[in-house]
Every structure is written in C-alpha cells, then in structure tokens.
Amino acid sequence: MKGASTQEIMEVAGVIKPMCVTYGAVFVIDDHVELVRELHADGVHLGKNDMPVAEARHILSSDYIIGGTANTLADVESLYGAGADYVGCGPFRFTTTKKNLSPVLGIDGYHHIIRGMRMKNMNIPIFAIGGITYQDIPDIMEAGVDGIAVSGAMLDSCKPAEEMMRMIDIINNI
Predict the structure, then answer these.
(1) DSSP, residue by residue, 108-154
(2) In this predicted model, what pLDDT tens digit does every residue of 105-141 receive, in sequence order?
(3) Which of 23, 31, 125, 147 could covalently link to 86 via disulfide, CB atoms 3.0 to 4.6 Å apart?
(4) Element (H, E) at 89
(5) Residues 20, 26, 27, 31: what is their CA dihedral angle, to the nearest 10 degrees?
(6) What is the DSSP string of 24-88?
(7) Is domain 28-172 in CATH 3.40.50.1110, yes or no?
(8) CA 20, CA 25: separation in Å to the nearest integer?
(9) What does the pLDDT look like over 46-91, one tens digit per residue?
(10) In this structure, what is the dihedral angle of CA atoms 55, 81, 50, 36, given to the nearest 10 degrees?
(11) Could you tell me which residues are beta bridge partners of residue 69?
(12) How many angstroms separate the CA atoms of 138 and 71, rounded?
C-alpha cells in the first residue's frame, strides 16, 4: 500500500488484523512505525529510505518485529547491527514493486550474501523478494535464504489463493 493514506491503511488493517489472528499469521505494517501500536500490528518493515531500524527499535522496543530491506552484504550487516529481526533482500530480478533497488541480485547475489553472512557469523533470517515466480523458488531456497516474499506474483495471478498454495507446497517440499 505504498502511497496509500494513513486512513486507507487503517481501514485495510481493520480487515487484515482479524484475519491474521484467525489464521495465526504475523501482521507487519510497511513503513509506518507510528501505526504499529495503534493497529496492534506485530511489527514493521522498513525500506532503505524509511526510518532507520535502530530508531524504530528505540520507539517500539523488543516487543515488536522490525525488518529491513537490503540488497548488499553491507546492507545486511548494517541491519543486523541495528537490531533488525529479519531482512527482506532483493530484488531477485527487476520488478515494478522494487524498481528503485539495485543491483538486481539473481541467484548469484543470494549465494554471495549468504556466504558472506556465514563468514561473519551473522545469524538473521533472510527473505528473498522482488520479481519471484513459482519457477524461481527451488533455486532461491537452495541458495540458503529462509523464505520468500511475493506480491507481484499474487497481484498478477487470476487465482491468487491457488497460486499462493502452489508456492507454499513447493517450499514445504524442498
């Protein structure tokens, strides 16, 4: 909901939060640290141009999940040092939802970042994001990431619930 008004976010959150409770899902708000408590969210995800993770951690304390966006090993190291709980790392390939992030990582980029994290003993969950399709999932997961995040694949699907189930099934069978 990038570009949505605070009111729009609050209205949609009023629908999504109860669904998350019903299904045991984690409810993370994008960008808006100031709304996390008010919307009873579990946490916030911060992009590279949003509030710094350390500042959000100071505001929210350790009671909330804080994730950040990265696309280099240095970014991951910075987020790790700032106290992020996870990293959204990408883009895997060019996508309009992550068009301002570069470089495009591809499989080799994830291998490089995961290898570097191991060498530096950084233990933080990494989630691949950006232009990921069903066919990409086995190679991305085998690169060593902890999971994937998708939006375009769902938004572009004529049957998003079925597509999501397909993706969950393939991840569960890797």
Answers:
(1) HHHHHHHHHHHHTT----EEEESS--GGGHHHHHHTT-SEEE-SHHH
(2) 999 999 999 999 999 999 999 999 999 999 999 999 9
(3) 125
(4) strand 86-89
(5) -160
(6) T---EEES-GGGTTTTT-SEEEE-TTSS-HHHHHHHHGGGSEEEEEESSHHHHHHHHHHT-SEEE
(7) no
(8) 4
(9) 999 999 999 999 999 999 999 999 999 999 999 999 999 999 999 9
(10) -60
(11) 88
(12) 20
pTM across the whole model:
0.92
Spell out the residues 6+ positions from residue 43 whose beta carbon is closer than 8 angstroms to its own. 26, 28, 29, 36, 60, 64, 65, 66, 67, 85
Count of Cβ atoms closer than 10 Å to residue 129 Cβ? 27
Crossing angle of the two packed helices 73-82 and 106-119, in degrees rounded to 10:
50
Structure tokens given for 84: 């992020």
